[in-house]
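Q: what does this look like with coproporphyrinogen III bound?
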Amino acid sequence: MPNDLLLRAARGEVVERPPVWMMRQAGRYMQAYRELRAKYPSFRDRSENPELAAEISLQPFRAFQPDGVILFSDILTPLPGLGIDFDIVESQGPIIKPPIRSQEQIERLTPFEPEPKFGFIGKALHHICREVGDRATVLGFVGAPWTLAAYAVEGKSSKDYALIKTMAYREPALLHKFLQKLAEAIAIYACYQIDQGAQVIQLFDSWAGQLPPDDYSRFALPYEKYVFQYIKERYPSVPLILYISGSAGIFPRLKDTGADVISVDWTMDIAEARQILGAEVAVQGNLDPCVLLATPEIISDRTYEIIRKAGRRGHIMNLGHGILASTPEENAIHFVETVKAYRY
Ligand code: CP3
């Protein structure tokens, strides 16, 4: 039997149980990943060598068969395609060198072309699709313009986003120019992933929840919408998921983005999320990743609570953000198996 549960749930169809996968399911909590990381210490090597990226993407699939297999990559991966260089440094996270802060730098950015530079993404997706076949859904993903701009302007992870917000408030026209260039690049990059086999696209606007709601509507939402519209015009049947961390305060606005599925963090009751979004939009989430640090009984109870609240139509079970590196692997497996054994 082909497993298209995730696609059916994303389209709002009635399914026998919710599909399940985990954000960051390929990563540091897995022993197999840590072994590969010891052999290939550079994040860019691991994520830009197609055989390695495919191998890492498939580690969770081999270990516990989630219903979705996400490409192992990063939201920053396409930035060199615009002329923005980056690295991911152990215990520091992403570093952009040099940060993008001037009009001159923004004007100099180059239009994005997937091939030949990003052919490794296509190759990795081919490997993944070949191994997964019809046993799960393959997800591609991109970072949204606001979140990518936040990294590019700040130059690294930030607590307060003071530099990009200063640009937003003092030089809005300049930031809009940058956001538009990022949106065009990201839209093309997402379509490339679909061409190469991705069946769903998740858009990560992780830091859009840091904006005051009206500024979310000015600086983040229009560009999320641009990317979704661009993809929808070309691939109307590919489900589009939007993830924003800390989105409770802007939740009613998320309907206007054009996403088919809204990924809900753990600060929101998923039943209330559904009420706000209405029947047309599916939901994903929203288990607190810290629940996976508890016992198997607690993990099952909290998982059932969410499944019942979300209802039987259009819910993809997932965490409210990425799985923590300190999660015991057996707890992650227990979570996935709990969902897979559930029947509505
Ligand atoms: O979900 C998956 O399994 C696919 C892989 C994936 C990674 N990054 C791999 C990765 C995905 C979907 C991302 C997206 C991403 N990258 C986001 C959006 C999701 C979110 O968490 O909000 C963001 C904000 C980034 C930027 C980024 N890259 C951060 C904040 C970090 C972590 C820094 C750290 O050291 O904790 C990275 C590095 C990164 N990307 C790691 C992984 C597995 C950890 C580095 C490593 O394994 O060596």
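Residues 172-195 form the longest helix (24 residues). Residues 92 and 157 are 8 Å apart (CA to CA).
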